[in-house]
Each structure stands twice: as C-alpha cells, then as structure tokens.
C-alpha cells in the first residue's frame, strides 16, 4: 500500500538518478533513498561504468540504520547474480529493510518482476509504480536500449524565431546566449556520445566538449555521421557499445536523416528572439508526405526561459 | 496625487479602449471609466469612425452621477474644437467631475497638455502617467500615425517549430489548430486593413475575413502588395487613409520586404508543435549584415498557449 510521502521521497530518488545519466551504460542510472523514521539515512546512485548500483551505495551509507527503513528506488532491485557485484534484492533483505518502494519494474529479463518477488518472499512490503512516468524519462537511455536495441536519441537545435541555424555565410556563432549555451553543455554531460554531420564537423570545427567548471571531464565521445566515416547511417547507432544516450547536434542534413529514420526520441529546442530571414534552415528533408502526418508526433515535456532565449523540450509521442 | 485604486480602474479603461482598436482611425481608441463613491457610473470607448469620444459616451451614461466622480481615461481629454462633436475637457468640467486620471498625454498638437491644463484651471484634480506603457500599447495605431506618419504594423506568422510556413507543395492548411486560427481572426478584427503579398493572394486565395460569430462585420480592408498592384511598396502604407493598424499576413517575400524596410512594429508568432523539414521558409531576405545585428531588436510582450500551439507577441525595441 502506498503512503502519503511516497511521491516526495521518490522524487528525491529521481533527482539522484539524473546525476549519472549518460555515464552508466549498459546499466540503468538508478537513484535510491533510504528513509528511516522520516529521516534520510542513505542516498545512492549508479556509479560511472554501472557499479556499484544505487541501492548498494545507499545501503553502504546507511549501515545499521537501514534496519527497518524504507527504500525508495527508481528501478526494481536486481535479482540476478553478476561477477561484477552483489545482487541488490539480496542486499536489501540482508540489511533488514522493512519496505521497498519502486518506480518502475525492470524490463531486463533477468529481473523483470523477480526482484520484487524475492523481496516479498522475504516478508518485505513492496509498493510499485510510484512516479513511474517520471522514472521512464529519467532512465530513458537504458529503457530505449532494452526495448529497441539502440540508444535514446535527443536532437538539439538552436534556432532563430524563423527557424534558421546559420546565416547564408554560414555564420552561426552565436544564435543563442550564454545561458542557453551553458544548458546545452550540461546536456552534453548527460550523454555518452554526441554526433554531428560531416558538414558541421568541417565548417564549424566544433569542440563538442563540456565547458562547465567542474564538469570538464564529462565530455562525451564524439561521432561524425558521414557515408565514408565512423558512423555511416543513423541506423548504425544500434551498434554503438557503451552508448545509451546519444545527442545529435546537427546540422540540417544529419538532423533530417535521424528524423526521416524515426530515430529521434526527444527534441531540445533553444530559440533566440531574433529573425534571420534567409540562411541555413534547421532541417533538410524529413520525408513528410503531407501536413496531416506532421501533427500529433511531438508533445511538450518542459519549457523554460534561459536569459532571453527559450528552451522547449518535446518527446516523440 | 495618485490613489491606491488608480491602477485597477485604469486597467478597466484600457480594456474598453481595446474594444475599438482598428475601428476609430484617424482618432485614438480611448477607453474611459467614471467612478463615484467606489462604483462605476459610466463607461465609454471611442465609437467606430472616431466619434463620440470615450469620455462623452461615459458622461452620457453617468448623467447626474458624474458630479463629484473620478474620470479614468486612457488619453488626455481633447482641448480642441471640432465640427464633429464636443470638446471632452469642456464636457468633463460642465459635468462637475472632481478628478481626472490620465494614462497618456495626447501627442496631437491641438491638445498636447492643453486638455489637462484646462481641467486644472477649472479646479479639477488631475493625475497623469497611470499605466502609461500599457496605454501606449493599447493605442499604438494612433500613436504610430502621430509619431511616424504611418500605420502601426503587425506581422503575423504561423510556423512549424522549424520555421516553415508551407510544405514544398505549397500546402499550408493547416499548420496551426482551430484555437490559434480563431485568435488570428480576432486580431484581424482589430486592424483597419490586412495585407498579403501577390504570391499568397494567388496561391492561397485567402478570404481574409473575420470568421467569428458576431464579428463577421468587422472584416478589414484587404490589400495586396505587388509591384503592379494597389500597394507597390511597403513605404506606400503611409498614404493609406483611415488605416492606423495594418496586419501583414505574409507570405515570406512580403513579410521580408516590411522587415527590410524597418516597418514592422509588432510580431505575432503562432507556432505549432510540428516539424516540416523542407518547405517554404517563413521569411525571405531581410537584409542582415551579420548575426550581431539580429540581436536586441525584439522583446517579448506576451505569450500564451492556444490549444497545442503557442502564441508569442514581440515588440520592436
Ligand atoms: N544552430 C545550430 O544548432 C547548428 C547546429 C549544427 C550545425 N549548424 C550549422 O549547420 C551547417 C551544417 O549543416 P549541413 O546540413 O550542411 O551539414 P551536416 O548535416 O552537418 O552534415 C551533412 C553530412 O552528413 C552526412 N550525412 C547526412 N545524412 C546522412 C546519412 N543518412 N547517412 C550518412 N551520412 C549522412 C553526409 O556526409 P558525407 O557527405 O560525408 O556522406 C552529409 O554530407 C553549418 O553552417 C553549421 O554552422 C547549426
Ligand atoms: N503560414 C503562414 O503564416 C503563411 C502566410 C502567408 C503565406 N503563406 C504561404 O507563403 C507562400 C507565398 O509566399 P511568397 O513569399 O511566395 O509570396 P508573397 O510574399 O505572398 O508574395 C510575393 C509577391 O509580393 C510582392 N512583393 C514582395 N515584396 C515587394 C516589394 N518590396 N514591393 C512590391 N511588391 C513586393 C511581389 O509581387 P509582384 O511580383 O506582383 O511584384 C512578389 O512577387 C504560399 O505558399 C502561402 O501558402 C503562409
């Protein structure tokens, strides 16, 4: 049975899960909070590379205070053995946790309900489905890899009000202001890899790094889409090992190729309050047969003002 | 001296002034509220064609209850004689109004401070500058005509997220949904004239009317921009008699021509949550030398959600 404060504690666990988005592939970025007598006694999140798991880290922090506690975890605790570390459902049982609240059932066939079953069999009270939709967004990389066998793809575009990404001269620095650019760098830190088309690679010579104090080491792997390069087609992303989150940063042709292939899950639109008129359009041909089929594909997830620019985040629906 | 409730009553007067936006040229669309003992005793707004003035209408409604009342008016009451009707400052004095609160001084050289002076000379308490910025927006047509000798110009664009106004086939019905389109029709009713380029006129054969129940009779005058037509250049709008508010509804070339000429005061952007890729861009060449000169020109005035579309209103700054 759910408790009144479950949503609040699960939201805290979700915040922790976001910390390691883009750094845990092929493992999910799980967040975990242990609460005893209304106080947090342990916090954990999947560590870079995928181990330790969030639950193991929170239990280590809590020590003896885990006994009788409630564990809030964004994903069902694992039930399978691994040579890389302990099984979380067993750890929770051994620590004497009284209750486990789970946002999302683990689709990994080695767990998929078996983690919750094992906890229940040990007499632990288990609640599932708390903030499930939010958990799907937070762990989208892992879930997309499980469901579709490819990374979760975010397409970033920085445009003028009239949808241009560069002047006719190719000048594109800068369309958006410093706050929007800093936000875009933070997004980079949350992806295992960034991709640009060969055109952008050669015209802009982008550094594709994370220029944010303290996060410089989080620069993702760089990929170039080119018929003669390391990634020869959008569908080749399925084979990218260790990449569960891919950020596509343009240009127009590369972005269109991903859209045409139906491989964009999330749109990150930074829009500056300027008009450019002629210039480079945001997208090449995305293969639309008519206007009707353009509708109903994108739903607004989030929007915010970043200085004088506006960020809108859309999910493919 | 100002009173605490002045802003609230002036906001009501401004609402009334909006009622006749686009119908009073060459007169300003003034709104007026008479308040006695905390209650509204008269409301008025400039009538179609420009007469009676808002103050005259409010005084007629109030009758004897105008004695000792406070008059809230969006523009300084006129001081000049006209064969078309009475002088408002005189009417207010004769009615025995105790106090007059004015948003904006009348730039018309025949009044320009003389209205307020006459009221003060008659012993009436006069306060000015209440919600002045809002009044400038509400009466922008009259003020632009006074200051620049031309109508106030709004450019409307309905685009996809990537700034397209039509598919490559020319298909553009519909990009935005019914709520956005209804809002755009309401905007039409607030302009004395609508303009499109010859391309749009011939491709879309637009009706350019007001398809809103009860407002059908508010359809503005229709103009086509064409080197061989009734309006041969954007700068010719100065000569349009009886037009203080002009709505430019595209297409890309006509819109760009107005922007290039520096003749757009207000942008009305309806944006649908769709991507189109290739297609007709929103704007042709607006003559930008570089990116830096695109910045700082537009400031966000208003934004709202209309169904699944978003409306943003920008002012030229
Ligand atoms: N404001 C922004 O957000 C932003 C972001 C990025 C870029 N830009 C601007 O965009 C411009 C560059 O854009 P662009 O459209 O010209 O170039 P682009 O999309 O960066 O690169 C085009 C190249 O990508 C490769 N490619 C595209 N589709 C492919 C597919 N399906 N399979 C394999 N390879 C594929 C091809 O490389 P090969 O020819 O080698 O096969 C193609 O020539 C620059 O001016 C840049 O400044 C702006
Ligand atoms: N989604 C929307 O909001 C929206 C709105 C309107 C239109 N559209 C679409 O836009 C497309 C049409 O746009 P368009 O750019 O091709 O045509 P357009 O802008 O409607 O018309 C172009 C014509 O306007 C005249 N013109 C332009 N600049 C001028 C200047 N400085 N002085 C005198 N005349 C000038 C010229 O006429 P002459 O050749 O006669 O000299 C020119 O050929 C259509 O597909 C339509 O569906 C979409």
TrEMBL record, chains A, B:
It holds the Pfam family RibD_C. Coiled coil: none annotated. Substrate binds at residues 172, 188, 208, 211, 249. Its EC number is 1.1.1.193, 3.5.4.26. Zn(2+) binds at residues 53, 78, 88. One of its GO terms (molecular function) is 5-amino-6-(5-phosphoribosylamino)uracil reductase activity. The active site is at 55 (proton donor). Converts 2,5-diamino-6-(ribosylamino)-4(3h)-pyrimidinone 5'-phosphate into 5-amino-6-(ribosylamino)-2,4(1h,3h)-pyrimidinedione 5'-phosphate. One of its GO terms (biological process) is riboflavin biosynthetic process. It comes from Sphingomonas xinjiangensis. Binds 1 zinc ion. Keywords: Hydrolase, Metal-binding, Multifunctional enzyme, NADP, Oxidoreductase, Riboflavin biosynthesis, Zinc. This is Riboflavin biosynthesis protein RibD. Gene3D superfamilies: Cytidine Deaminase, domain 2, Dihydrofolate Reductase, subunit A. NADP(+) binds at residues 158, 174, 200, 204, 227, 251-257. PROSITE patterns: CYT_DCMP_DEAMINASES_2. In the C-terminal section; belongs to the HTP reductase family. In the N-terminal section; belongs to the cytidine and deoxycytidylate deaminase family. Its cofactor is Zn(2+). Residues 4-126 form the CMP/dCMP-type deaminase domain. InterPro entries: CMP_dCMP_dom, Cytidine_deaminase-like, DHFR-like_dom_sf, Eubact_RibD, RibDG_C, Riboflavin_Biosynth_HTPR. Pathway: Cofactor biosynthesis; riboflavin biosynthesis; 5-amino-6-(D-ribitylamino)uracil from GTP: step 3/4; Cofactor biosynthesis; riboflavin biosynthesis; 5-amino-6-(D-ribitylamino)uracil from GTP: step 2/4. CDD domains: Riboflavin_deaminase-reductase.
């Amino acid at each position: 049975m759910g408790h009144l404060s479950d949503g609040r504690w699960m939201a805290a666990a979700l915040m922790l899960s976001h910390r390691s988005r883009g750094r845990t592939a092929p493992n999910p970025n799980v967040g975990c909070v242990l609460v005893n007598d209304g106080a947090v006694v342990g916090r954990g999140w999947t560590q870079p590379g995928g181990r330790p798991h969030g639950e193991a880290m929170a239990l280590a922090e809590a020590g003896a205070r885990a006994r009788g506690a409630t564990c809030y975890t964004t994903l069902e605790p694992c039930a399978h053995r691994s040579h890389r570390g302990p099984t979380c459902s067993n750890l929770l049982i051994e620590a004497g946790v009284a209750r486990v609240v789970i946002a999302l059932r683990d689709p990994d066939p080695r767990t998929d309900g078996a983690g919750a079953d094992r906890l229940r069999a040990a007499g632990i009270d288990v609640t599932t489905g708390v903030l499930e939709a939010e958990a799907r967004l937070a762990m989208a990389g892992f879930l997309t890899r499980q469901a579709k066998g490819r990374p979760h793809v975010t397409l970033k575009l920085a445009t003028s009000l009239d949808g241009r990404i560069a002047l006719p001269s190719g000048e594109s620095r800068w369309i958006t202001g410093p706050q929007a650019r800093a936000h875009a760098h933070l997004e980079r830190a949350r992806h295992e890899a960034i991709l640009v088309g060969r055109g952008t690679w050669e015209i802009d010579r982008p550094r594709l790094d994370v220029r944010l104090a303290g996060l410089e080491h989080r620069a993702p792997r760089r990929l170039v889409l080119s018929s003669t390069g390391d990634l020869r087609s959008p569908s080749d992303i399925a084979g990218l090992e260790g990449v569960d989150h891919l950020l596509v940063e343009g240009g127009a042709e590369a972005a269109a190729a991903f859209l045409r292939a139906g491989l964009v899950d999330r749109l990150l639109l930074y829009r500056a309050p300027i008009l450019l008129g002629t210039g480079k359009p945001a997208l090449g041909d995305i293969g639309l047969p008519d206007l009707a089929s353009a509708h109903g594909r994108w739903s607004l997830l989030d929007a915010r003002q970043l200085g004088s620019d506006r960020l809108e985040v859309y999910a493919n629906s």
